[in-house]
Amino acid sequence: MPHTIVTDVCEGVADCVDACPVACIHEGPGKNVKGTDWYWIDFATCIDCGICIQVCPVADAIVPEERPDLQKTP
């Protein structure tokens, strides 16, 4: 099951982008409710490895389940 970046919690640090082995994490357009850049996970490409959760310094920014209700996508 793919992971989900919680759009309104993400702070745009982007450590997850470089760590992802399948390049499924992409920058979202504009800013989120916190006024920061944000990223999203392509559910169709995610291999559920969990590396993104391990490297993300923002608590609760990524959840280990597919939750399209928490993640905006362009």
- Total of DSSP H or I helical runs spanning 4+ residues: 2
- What is the SS-derived class? alpha+beta
CATH topology: Alpha-Beta Plaits
Strand content: 5-15%
Whole-number total of structural domains: 1
Low-pLDDT residue spans: none
Description:
This protein is an alpha+beta fold and 74 residues long. It has a single domain (1-69), classed as 2-Layer Sandwich (Alpha-Beta Plaits), CATH 3.30.70. The protein has helices at residues 15-19, 51-55; strands at residues 4-5, 25-27, 39-41, 62-63. The strands form two sheets. The chain has a two-stranded antiparallel ribbon. The chain has a two-stranded antiparallel ribbon with strand order 2-3. The longest helix has 5 residues, at 15-19. The mean pLDDT is 97.
